[in-house]
Amino acid sequence: MTNVRHVLGISGGKDSAALAIYLKDKYPALTIDYYYCETDKELPETYQLISNIESYLGQKITRLKAVPESHEHQFDHFLKLYGGYLPSSNARWCTRQLKLEPFEKFVGDIPTISYVGIRGDEDRDGYISHKPTIQAIFPFRENIWSMEIIRKTFSNENIPMIKEIGLDVLPKKTMDAMLRIIETPISFTYYQNRKVKDLLSIGIKGFNKIVFTFLKNENLPVSMLEDFPLIENEDILVREDIFNILEKSGVGVPGYYKKVEFEVDGKKGHYARSRSGCYFCFFQQKIEWIWLYENHPDKFEAAMAYEKDGYTWMQDEGLSDLIKPERMKKIKLEQLKKIKRSKDQKSPFLVDILQEAEGEGCAACFL
């Protein structure tokens, strides 16, 4: 595997941190380069997590800066270039400039496998680089391959080839059942996702061997490997597993996930953060902004200072309005309703309550 580079981006969030621990423990023979894309606008809990991971891994995590020669903070450098125009869901220049471009520059043109911490209970691929030299692998999922790879492998035109591969690599006990599915063409009534799920339900290892063998004919990083240990992996890890990995390893869960108690109208509730990334992330829910205001007032004040000339972090409301007493009260009362609807009140973390927003945002920030 010396001709292929293996990398893992640490976002400051729980999933990428757990993936680093998981791969070190289960695949110690893999030589992985860990990196972190610096924006200079992270919470102190993020830096603490990175330090803890470095201690566990026994190696440094490379800090990537988009403009290392700049005398300004990385985010502020680009904010000036964009004329003070704050990033938003419709203009995610921060992700492109501060995350994606530094990552692709870091990798260069070396064939690279990028390990991504999207869990088995998430239905998304996240950011997939368009560079043909970079290939994403998802170790926590039942299907470790990207949808682009799956579409190519199991296209109707490749049925004869995949059948031939199956005859060669599948174990006898599952061969007949998998070949029947392979021979069934994708149609309006039998769509690709269903075909993939049917194959995986019979045998994950057999499925992976088919894809890996097919990719030998493609110009992709994994095709350059004689062997790839993850094709033997049958683990499917979900949110609860991630927290367990972090706690048992001693690395710990990032502090901003832990519930903090608040009181409103004599009723007690709790709030936290559902995401890593910059402290002023525009994908935050309003209760998360309140959490920032009450737990990191200096960071909230700094975020509020960016709002000028009509530019605000939220399209419908500025931060100065958000922290008016009656407005904060209303947001906290809404949070109490969410807590009441939540099925799991016992967890020390709030991701279960904020989970509707957990998969939103800039994928590169949460890997």
Provide the structure class.
Answer: alpha/beta
Order of strands across the main sheet: 3-2-1-4-5
Integer-rounded radius of gyration: 23 Å
Number of domains: 3
Quick recap:
The strands form 2 sheets. The protein has a 5-stranded parallel beta sheet with strand order 3-2-1-4-5. The protein is an alpha/beta fold.
Q: Could you describe the 3D structure shown?
A:
By secondary structure, the protein is an alpha/beta fold. The protein folds into three domains: 5-145 and 235-249, HUPs (Rossmann fold, 3-Layer(aba) Sandwich); 149-226, no CATH class; 255-365, no CATH class. It is built from 14 helices and seven strands. The strands form two sheets. The protein has a five-stranded parallel beta sheet. A two-stranded antiparallel sheet has the order 6-7. Strand 1, helix 1 (14-26) and strand 2 form a beta-alpha-beta unit.
Structural topology:
Elements: E1 5-9, H1 14-26, E2 32-37, H2 44-57, E3 62-64, H3 74-81, H4 93-107, E4 112-115, E5 134-137, H5 147-153, H6 159-169, H7 172-183, H8 192-202, H9 204-215, H10 239-249, E6 260-264, E7 267-271, H11 286-295, H12 297-305, H13 319-322, H14 325-341
Parallel strand pairs: 1-2, 1-4, 2-3, 4-5
Antiparallel strand pairs: 6-7
Helix pairs in contact: 1-2, 1-10, 6-7, 6-9, 7-8, 8-9, 11-12
